[in-house]
């Protein structure tokens, strides 16, 4: 498989790690570790709210990108970031080209150009760890988060680093997935998941068909909407460091991720082919639920969390770390942006 953008030779885990870079403007921004046990996220805290994050990030852009590769995630805290527009300016100062959100897997609202609400899911539900859009033929390298309104309770965005998770994952599981890839089946419509119009951001069936053909996804129109099947990678190569990382949505899309009572109702009503989404090995054979639970447990074991504060900005390397969402109570408004388009070939 090959990464778009020209991947460098692969660097396996265990090779000499990247060295953290010290910023020259330490008098303006303090650099601290959130946890002594984990390198991510690195916290960059303003000495005073008057420090302009857009100006400072522009001046330190190259070093910030080095820090991101070294740590996997950066948390900017204590700056006066007070609007979606200001957040967008911060993101563009470091990663100028922000992305649109196509082939959607969750409901979002665009509040400013290339700035979206975080996944609009009921507050009492968990969003499992995942790499953004790893089910697609392309995905963002960077994910930006901005806390406009912190939740009254819960609602953290747990993150876990691949440098901790992937080396600990059973090598037999890695080989099986790497050889076969992952097949994703999705049923759009019927009021159970996104409509195909929302997912593909068009009302023209011909545009959807063209997109599926270009992305090597099989499709069929059903009485309730659209069904797609696509085989994607289980692992990916970081386009800059050459590291091989676990990179798929298998444990998130698989029906074992549903509450048992909900899964039973959906299976009784629609059958396995009619579920909103499901995941298989790339050859179409079922994935063992116990294997997927081992993956979920591995991410939980290396999870790092922090309470959101108003104005926080979090930058995550989408290949080096996964993210999720805790249930919460009260108001919560986290905005997101994406940048750095990447992709791989379908496994052979």
Commentary on this structure:
With 348 residues, the chain is α+β, with helices and mostly antiparallel strands. It folds into two domains: 29-125 and 132-157 and 306-343, Double-stranded beta-helix, CATH 3.60.130; 166-297, Clavaminate synthase-like (Double-stranded beta-helix), CATH 3.60.130.10. The chain contains ten helices and 20 strands. An eight-stranded mixed beta sheet has the order 1-2-3-17-7-20-5-4, covered by helices on one side. Strands 6-18-9-16 form a four-stranded antiparallel beta sheet. Strand 1 (29-35) and strand 2 form a beta hairpin. The longest helix has 13 residues, at 289-301. Mean pLDDT is 90; it is low at 1-24.
Features:
about 350 residues, alpha+beta, Double-stranded beta-helix, 2 domains, 4-stranded antiparallel sheet, 10 helices, about 25% helix, disordered N terminus
CATH architecture level-2 label of the largest domain: 4-Layer Sandwich
User: Percent helix among the residues?
Assistant: 25-40%
The radius of gyration computed from the alpha-carbon positions, rounded to a whole number of angstroms, is: 20 Å
Name the overall outline: globular
Question: What is the end-to-end distance?
Answer: 8 Å
**Looking at this structure, what is the CATH superfamily of the largest domain?**
Clavaminate synthase-like
Q: Secondary-structure element sequence?
A: EEHHEHEEEEEEHHEHHEEEEHHEHEEEEE
Order of strands side by side in the largest beta sheet?
1-2-3-17-7-20-5-4
Helix/sheet category: alpha+beta
Mean pLDDT: 90
**Strand composition percent:** 25-35%
> Which stretches are low in confidence, meaning pLDDT under 50 for 5 or more residues running?
1-24
The CATH topology of the largest domain is Double-stranded beta-helix
Largest sheet: 8 strands, mixed
What is the number of domains? Answer: 2
CATH class of the largest domain: Alpha Beta
Total DSSP helices: 10
Count of beta strands: 20
């Amino acid at each position: 498989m090959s990464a778009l953008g020209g991947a460098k030779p692969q660097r396996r885990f265990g090779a000499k790690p990247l060295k953290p870079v010290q910023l020259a403007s330490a008098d303006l921004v303090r650099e601290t570790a959130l946890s002594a046990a984990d390198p991510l996220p690195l916290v960059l805290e303003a000495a005073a709210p008057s420090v302009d994050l857009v100006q400072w990030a522009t001046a330190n852009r190259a070093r910030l990108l080095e820090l991101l590769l070294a740590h996997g995630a950066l948390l900017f805290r204590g700056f006066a970031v007070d609007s979606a527009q200001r957040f967008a300016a911060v993101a563009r100062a470091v990663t100028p080209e922000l992305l649109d959100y196509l082939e959607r897997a969750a409901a979002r609202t665009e509040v400013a150009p290339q700035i979206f609400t975080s996944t609009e899911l009921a507050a009492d539900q968990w969003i499992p760890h995942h790499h953004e859009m790893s089910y697609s033929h392309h995905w963002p390298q960077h994910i930006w988060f901005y806390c406009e309104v912190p939740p009254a309770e819960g609602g953290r965005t747990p993150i876990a680093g691949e440098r901790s998770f992937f080396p600990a994952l059973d090598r037999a599981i890695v080989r099986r997935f790497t050889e076969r890839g992952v097949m994703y089946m999705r049923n759009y419509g019927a009021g159970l998941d996104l409509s195909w119009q929302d997912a593909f951001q068009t009302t023209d069936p011909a545009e959807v068909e063209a997109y599926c053909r270009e992305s090597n996804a099989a499709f069929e129109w059903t009485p309730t909407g659209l069904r797609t099947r696509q085989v994607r990678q289980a692992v990916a190569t970081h386009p800059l460091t050459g590291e091989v990382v676990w990179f798929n949505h298998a444990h998130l899309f698989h029906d074992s991720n549903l509450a048992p009572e909900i899964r039973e109702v959906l299976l009784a009503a629609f059958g396995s082919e009619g579920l909103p989404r499901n995941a298989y090995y790339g050859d179409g054979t079922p994935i063992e639920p116990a294997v997927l639970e081992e993956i979920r447990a591995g991410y939980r074991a290396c999870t790092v969390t922090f309470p959101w504060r108003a104005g926080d900005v979090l930058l995550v390397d989408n290949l080096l770390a996964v993210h999720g969402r805790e249930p919460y109570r009260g108001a919560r408004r986290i905005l997101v942006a994406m940048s750095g388009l990447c992709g791989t070939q379908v496994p052979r």
